[in-house]
Amino acid sequence: MLGKEKEPGFDRLDLIDQLLPVYLEILAGLDAAGAEWIQFDEPFLSMDLSPKAREVYSWVYAKIRKEFPLLKILIATYFGGLRENLPLALSLPVCALHLDLIRCPEQLEEALDQLPEDMTLSLGLVDGRNIWKNDLQHSLNIIHQANQKIGDDRIMISPSCSLLHVPHDLEAENNEQQFLSEIKAWMAFARQKIGEVSLLKQLFSHPENHRTCKFSVKNKILSAADRHPNWSKIRKLSKRPMPFGMRMPIG
């Protein structure tokens, strides 16, 4: 969907008849190997779709479901909200839908109201595009909101998107001249973010653990960060509303 069209009159969607058999072949191999869940990344669903693109989405996923009725398909959307494409995403014959609740938290309520009874919702709560620790209490509040609406058996907890956008492991950064201990305490790289996803699951499943060392320490660190004179500026810079073309000359 994200491929570029350079030749006049060429429509990339016309390639779907050639591409789909390749995807089906790959899925057949994964199915034979015992795969239970298959994730398709669909950031394009966060963009404006033509009527033809909408038809292609419906046709492709109907074909996949027909060929592999027992495979559990998860569609992952990120980098933005689904907006007018939410009904389309919820109509597809898949088992789970992932939402980026960092970039578009306001889409959750509408998704919860419209979610089919046989679909699971993946909550993208740990930011996959920055290096800061998660606000665990804020994330837990969102999980509880979803739980009250659809139940915990239909909830997944996830990063907002792939963690390829962040460094690998904070523990490997030992240069104190580059990483002041105070600043490092606010950070979470990919390895730490995976730990945050796991910790959120534990804290939600076992509310009595809210007073555990990890939870209380993380909250104290975030509280201290909020009081730091530069923290508000850092937060604003990480959420600049201007498009990249306008930001680039500033940097």
UniProtKB/TrEMBL annotation:
InterPro entries from the UniProt entry: Cbl-indep_Met_Synth_N, UROD/MetE-like_sf
Pfam families membership: Meth_synt_1
Gene Ontology MF terms in the entry: 5-methyltetrahydropteroyltriglutamate-homocysteine S-methyltransferase activity; zinc ion binding
Domain spans labelled Cobalamin-independent methionine synthase MetE N-terminal: 1-149
GO biological processes: amino acid biosynthetic process
Protein name (record): Cobalamin-independent synthase, N-terminal domain
Species annotation: Cyclobacterium lianum
